[in-house]
Amino acid sequence: MQSLRKTFLSFRIGSSLSVIMQKNITTKLCGLSLSSPLVLASGIMGLSASSLKRIADAGAGAVTSKSFSSEERKGHPCPAVLPFEHGYLNAVGLSNPGIEDMIFEVTEFKKRSAVPLIASIFGKSPEEFGSVTEKTAQAKPNLIEVNVSCPNVASEFGKPFVVDLRELEAVTKTVKRFSGEIPVSVKLSLQCPSITEAAKCCEQSGANAITAINTVGPGMLIDVNTHRPILSNLSGGMSGPAIFPLTVKAVYDIYESVKLPIIATGGVTSTEDALQLIMAGATAVGIGSGIHIRGINIFSQINCELAKFIQSLGIKNLEELRGSAHG
Questions:
Q1: Measuring CA to CA, which of 21, 154, 315, 325 is 20 to 30 A from 163?
Q2: pLDDT 10s per residue in the chain (327 long)?
Q3: Contact between residue 237 and residue 152 where contact means Cβ atoms under 8 Å apart
Q4: Distance between CA atoms of residues 265 and 277, nearest Å
Q5: Could you give the CA distance from residue 158 to residue 326 in angstroms, rounded to a whole number?
Q6: DSSP labels for 224-263?
Q7: Domain ranges, residue 291
Q8: For residue 325, is it within any domain?
Q9: Cα separation of 309 and 20, whole Å?
Q10: Cβ distance 279 to 324 under 8 Å?
Q11: Does residue 289 sit in helix, strand or coil?
Q12: Known catalytic residue: 150?
């Protein structure tokens, strides 16, 4: 690890902030051609066509909308996002304007950009997942991400679908039935008894990819002056650098268990983070809270450093690194 860090750091100095569109970082995901392995993760800057385009123009190989449902959700009141020393606690609660508004934004983005768009959806039942998928497919996103694992709305929806393999199977098969030719990635979390068994279930049920992981938790922080939890929802999902090692292990295990491509997301803030996940087996790497930490230039910076790192090794492309951590 130390030698990797030294090699990597030597290429930071003088790196251009412009987006490096080089063949050695292009990536194939479910038949889609991505100019970069970096993907905007769901939940960050994903509510409007304009914000999605900002990230696309900043160098993301694909962008993911905020998760949306059949009807508008207000989410939880503020404070709903809490920065702390090692990351963030998030209890936003799947707030979104509803499918009609989001379909408009998806359609508008596709008019403005050729960068692939991933539509993230959720529902309260397999039937609702099906109806949301059917309407979403009409907007022709390049991929549909199925959020079955949000940890901070359990009191409203019951346990996450990822916890029960029978429910997970039902949701996955229902979404596939209504998605048509559009590939489907199921977003898993560590909330389930076994993320590898969940991944196998998704593969057997027809999923085309796995997104891993979602936020971890729920967690809580207390205001020592008021003696009360700080978040209005009391607890929330944890994201940011603190969960990165959990992401690496989850991706490593999923890669060993299924043959599906993996969109790895959770705590990525640097080029070394992206490389670790690719070596663990990820096809693409999602960035969310990293934008808060480093700004939207994080995409162009990591693109540049990835391209230079590959060149330094004398290899052709990222494919030669993918899964290289496995024996």
A1: 325
A2: 544 555 554 444 334 433 444 679 999 999 999 999 999 999 889 999 999 999 999 999 999 999 998 887 787 888 888 899 999 988 887 777 889 999 999 999 999 999 999 999 999 889 999 999 999 999 999 999 999 976 544 444 556 777 889 999 999 999 999 999 999 999 999 988 899 999 999 999 999 999 999 999 889 999 999 999 999 889 888 999 999 999 999 999 999 999 999 999 999 999 999 999 999 999 999 999 999 999 999 999 999 999 999 999 999 999 999 999 998
A3: yes
A4: 9
A5: 37
A6: TTTTEESSTTS-EEEESGGGHHHHHHHHHHHHHH--S-EE
A7: 2-320
A8: no
A9: 12
A10: yes
A11: helix
A12: yes
Alpha helices in 79-189 (DSSP H): 99-112, 126-137, 154-157, 165-179
The verdict on residue 292 lying in a domain is yes
Structure pTM? 0.90
Rounded CA gap, 41 and 299, in Å? Answer: 12
CATH number at residue 235: 3.20.20.70
Distances (CA, A) of 105 to 68, 115, 125, 224, 242: 12, 14, 24, 42, 32
In a domain, 62, yes or no: yes
- For residue 163 the two structure tokens come to 């916890």
Cα radius of gyration rounded to whole Å, the chain:
19
What is the number of structural domains in the chain? 1
**Distance, CA of 191 to CA of 149 (rounded, Å):** 7
**Which of 30, 78, 150, 192 does the annotation list as catalytic?**
150
How does 156-168 read in b/e, with b if 16+ C-beta sit within 10 Å?
Answer: eeeebbbbbbebb
Q: Is 217 in contact with 191 (CB distance < 8 Å)?
A: no
Longest distance between any two alpha carbons in the chain, whole Å = 57
